[in-house]
Amino acid sequence: MWRLARVLCAALLVGSMAAPAGALEAGTAVDPGDHDQAGAPEARAAEARHERGRRLYDGLCYFCHGYAGDARTLAATLLNPPPRDFTAPPELDAARVIAALRDGRPGSAMTSFGARLDDEAMAVLADYVVREFVQRRARRSRYHSVENGWPDHDRHAAAYPFADGRIGLDAPVEALDAGQRAGRALFLSACISCHDRSRQDDPGPAWQPRPLSYPRPGFEPGQHAVTASGQPLDAVSTPSIYARHDRAPVIPGLTRREREGEALFQANCAFCHGADATGRNWIGQFMEPPARDLTALSAAAKAPRHLRQVIRDGLVGTSMPAWREVFTRAQVEAVVAYLGRRLNPAR
Ligand code: HEC
Ligand code: HEC
Ligand code: HEC
């Protein structure tokens, strides 16, 4: 967004100097501070080089050192030592920036950029840092500057500590004074959409074993669904399209072994293939590759010899497990027998 604002700025200046229209189309970046020299080819080349430095900087460095080079970033509140504020003394020169880029700073988050930047890019970047932050003290590099389309942003100063991490967003509200509370409220309403990573002193567990929210086997809205307060959810009356695949079909006249196979199938296979073996249940549809619709297998794949082998060995490269070590031989035979009935209803 700020890039756009800058281009607009340049456009206005170029316009007021009545430059040839081609200058803009050629994408000449004219620095508002240097517009009096913009005509000279060397000055333009220098400016193009400076803008290259800016792109490198905005891509690789702003995260810690800030767009404005003053290291007022969230990262600065988390790192020890904090990133260098380029606008503070002692004054940096290009050689020192290059040394930092090449070697990094031991014991700090400033790692070497030697693998990512060649000598020329390091020189361009170093000159940018020195010119922009040490010599020019360019305010417009700040994100929320007038030039970037944020007039009088300092009126939001109460919210700054939450944006730059000086106060954790989870700091106890009782510990905040009235101004800080107002700043927190402002931050939550107007800033958090972009500053989503504000500091939290206790971010909580990185992972919580919360159940995912998807319909459980047998779930039928209208019948089982309840609101948080325990009221039935009558509004939802159509059963989930997945629910009917979570019900085992009734197959009359199963032998004892087939019934044993049915129980094994429902306990071990239905989770992926659906209770009706179609794989059209919720989980089955979301697997990659999806669980196979066993009712649609070819005659060859339904053959007991093939089923026995697939169940024992699994399918390598898919989530179809090998059951060799889980089931006894007799149990594999029971599942094969059950599938024989389930997959060949006419028999
Ligand atoms: C992950 C955070 C991080 C990033 C990204 C980062 N730096 Fe740093 N930088 C630091 C820290 C931390 C220090 C302070 C090290 C210290 O105090 O020794 C530092 C220090 C410096 C210094 C001061 C060296 C000196 O001699 O005092 C320069 C110059 C510098 N960085 C330039 C850059 C440039 C240019 C980039 C982008 C290519 C960059 N940094 C990217 C964290 C970072
Ligand atoms: C549209 C997105 C966006 C919104 C909304 C936004 N910010 Fe920012 N803000 C940014 C970006 C991007 C940066 C630059 C980040 C950096 O330098 O690390 C930034 C930087 C800052 C900085 C560091 C100094 C500077 O200007 O670079 C402060 C302080 C800040 N924002 C405060 C706020 C406050 C307070 C609000 C709400 C009133 C707010 N921001 C709303 C995107 C936003
Ligand atoms: C963790 C999920 C999962 C479980 C549990 C599972 N399967 Fe599978 N199964 C799959 C997937 C996925 C495929 C399809 C792989 C593909 O398309 O390549 C598959 C394929 C199959 C096939 C087709 C083989 C072929 O050659 O086409 C059969 C038969 C089969 N499973 C039977 C079973 C039986 C019987 C059980 C229980 C003992 C079972 N599966 C348990 C995921 C599972």
From TrEMBL:
Q: What residues does the Cytochrome c domain cover?
A: 48-133, 256-343
The protein's name is Cytochrome c
Record's InterPro entries?
Cyt_c-like_dom (IPR009056), Cyt_c-like_dom_sf (IPR036909), Cytochrome_c550/c551-like (IPR051811)
UniProt keyword annotation of Transport present: yes
Which first-to-last residue range defines the signal peptide? 1-23
Q: Which UniProt keywords apply?
A: Electron transport, Heme, Iron, Metal-binding, Signal, Transport
Organism of origin: Leptothrix discophora
Has keyword Ubl conjugation? no
Q: Where is this region: Disordered?
A: 196-223
Highest taxon of the source?
Bacteria
* Native organism taxonomy: Bacteria, Pseudomonadati, Pseudomonadota, Betaproteobacteria, Burkholderiales
